[in-house]
Amino acid sequence: MGSGTQTFQHRSLSVKLWPPSHSTRLMLVERMTKNLTTPSIFSRNCGLLSNDEAEEDAKKMEELAFAAADQHYKKEPDGDGSSAVQIYAKESSRLMLEVIKRGPKVNGGLADRATDLRGTVFDISGGRRAFIGAEEAKELLRPLGEAGNSYTKICFSNRSFGLDAANVAAPILSTIKDQLTEVDLSDFIAGRPELEALDVMNIFSSVLEGCHLRYLNLSNNALGEKGVRTFGALLKSQNSLQGLYLMNDGISEEAARAVSELIPSTEKLKVLHFHNNMTGDEGAFAISEIVKRSCSLEDFRCSSTRVGTDGGLALAEALKRCAHLKKLDLRDNMFGVEAGVALSKAISQFTDLTEVYLSYLNLEDEGTEALANALKHSAPSLEVLEMAGNDITAKGTASLAACIASKQFLTKLNLAENELKDEGAILVANALGEDHGQLNEVDMSTNAIRRAGGRHLAQVVVKKPGFKLLHINGNFISDEGIDEVKEIFKGSLDMLGPLDENDPEGEDDEEEEDEDEEENAEHEKELESKLKDLKINQ
After folding, report:
1. β-pairing, 384-386 with 412-414?
2. How far is CA 147 from CA 183, 403, 426, 485, in A?
3. Which pLDDT tens digit goes with each residue over 110-155?
4. DSSP β-ladder status, 441-443 and 469-471
5. pLDDT digits (tens, 9 = 90+) for 269-315
6. Which CATH superfamily groups domain 22-102?
7. How many CA atoms lie within 13 A of 68 on its CB side?
8. With 0-12 CB in 10 A as exposed, 13-18 as middle and 19+ as buried, what is 289?
9. pLDDT in tens, 311-333
10. Which of 35, 49, 51, 70 has the most other CB atoms within 10 Å of its CB?
11. Which of residues 457 and 537 earns the better pLDDT score?
12. Exposed, middle or buried by CB within 10 Å (0-12, 13-18, 19+), for 128?
């Protein structure tokens, strides 16, 4: 089937945090084992686990936490993995608390639960991406046909089904359709001719029609309008969807209208992802209609969808209905200032927001200031803020710094590819005060920052207890400034990103290339004196 895939050049440096290394997973098991064998208020009442039992339970808990986080990551494979890491940590803590409260093992403990989890998820996406034929499909899908199985979640991603394999799958799926709650058919027709791909989709749509699904993933299938309508029987029968994923699907204006038309109810929808499509403004109008009907929405992603100002205005208006939003990703569109200001009015209502991705939206200072002011007075638990590539200057940074100063739970800040210069960089650094103890990553690359700004940023973030990575590449920091930064990170250079694209001879429109050391020193002294006592209203 012809692909509607678009290729976007991601301009900011990306660091993958998932999956964790083998040594990291072993370290977590060791820590949990130690916690389980350490006397606590719970152990006084519930009993203390032996070392052997604690180690056995710790291994099972780590496997369960990893499985939950990995399943989340597969739904967002182009992310940096930070949300998967958070789920991994939270799930590990939750399971460990359960075991501590439970005490020494009794019947129906964690071991039984691990078996139950493995028995509910059927996943054939592992291994190499490949075509599968009828015989292989019979072998792969055999467990689904076994009587008494308890599978509620299936993932057929990464395997390309032809007509013969689809005809094998159909009768098997018909026997378990009433117990399914999650179906992942992402990337399951890759490389097939259009007519065959449509026939395969029709077979799956027909056999799964009437399933009471909570989550449906049809991403990476280059659906277009034809594909969306071929899945019409399945989509029309869904009244309880909580998550719908249509990423990289060639969702054009017509396809977006088809989605809006075919889904009968989105009242329970919590997750809606449209990343990397050719939606445009007209398609954004159709998506806005879906959003308006999704008052329970918690996670909305409409990034890299070619949406301009008019579409941005429509989405901003629709998002006002979504008071429970926790994660918003609108990156890499062409909103402009007007849509940015309109979006700020919606964001001011999002008290539960924890992650916001607003990079490459052409916001400029005016749009940035409006959004920063809105975020400052909402989203008290904000953890991730990304506003890279928006032509933000030092002028717009004051409002942004005030917003940042009010977010004590911030873990990741990305302001790369703007025009903050030293003044803006020092404003941001001063905003990251002692209250920001959870901060672990800052990206200020490609911002025309010189020696003073780079040094000040380094001095602030290196003191953070859990800090992991500072990006200041692509700036105008002198060789002496680079040496100073490296000295600040002495003993922990792994916390400092690459500096190979830094240009010590760089200049911008407002500064002369050949400033001598005396002028540099005077410039830095003036900046730091001006900003050291900066007070940010919260």
Report:
1. parallel
2. 20, 57, 65, 64
3. 444 333 345 788 999 877 788 999 999 999 999 999 888 999 999 9
4. parallel
5. 999 999 999 999 999 999 999 999 999 999 999 999 999 999 999 99
6. WPP domain (1.10.246.200)
7. 19
8. middle
9. 999 999 999 999 999 999 999 99
10. 49
11. 457
12. exposed
Which residues of the chain does CATH 3.80.10.10 include?
119-265, 392-505+520-537
* Count of Cβ atoms closer than 10 Å to residue 413 Cβ: 24
Are 359 and 332 in contact, with CB atoms under 8 Å apart? yes
Q: Where in the chain is the domain with CATH 1.10.246.200?
A: 22-102
| pLDDT recorded at residue 1 | 54
CA 370 to chain CA centroid, Å, is: 24
Measured CA to CA, the distance from residue 422 to residue 404 in angstroms comes to 17
pLDDT single digits (tens) 249-264: 999 999 999 999 999 9
Per-residue b/e over 297-319, b at no fewer than 16 CB within 10 Å? bbbbbbbbbbbbbbbbbbbbbbb
Q: What is the pLDDT of residue 536?
A: 38
Q: Measured between alpha carbons, how far is residue 22 from residues 66, 89, 114, 125, 468 in Å? A: 12, 15, 20, 21, 19
Residue at 350: amino acid letter: F
Alpha-carbon distance 47 to 138, whole Å?
48
Query: Which of 269, 140, 161, 296 lies closest to 213, judged by CA?
Result: 269
With contact defined as beta carbons under 8 Å apart, do 165 and 188 qualify?
Answer: no
Interacting residues of 493 by C-beta distance below 8 A, sequence separation 6+: 486
Mention every residue, 6+ apart, whose C-beta is less than 8 A from residue 491.
none
Q: Pick one of 3.40.50.970, 3.80.10.10, 3.40.640.10, 3.40.190.10 as the CATH number of 392-505+520-537.
A: 3.80.10.10
Instruction: Count Cα neighbours of 410 within 13 Å in the Cβ-side half-sphere.
Output: 27
Task: Please state whether the peptide bond connecting residue 39 to the residue before it is cis, i.e. omega within 30 degrees of 0.
Answer: no
DSSP 475-529: S---HHHHHHHHHHTTT-GGGB---TT--TT---TTS-TT--HHHHHHHHHHHHH
The confidence score (pLDDT) of residue 73 equals 79
Tokens of 11: 């301009």
CATH of domain 119-265: 3.80.10.10
**Which is more confident, 215 or 62?**
215
How distant, in Å, are the alpha carbons of 111, 365, 428, 476 from that of 421?
Answer: 56, 14, 11, 9
Torsion of CA 224, 227, 229, 234, to 10 degrees: -130
Please name every residue paired with 301 in a beta bridge, in sequence order, or none if there are none. Answer: 273, 329
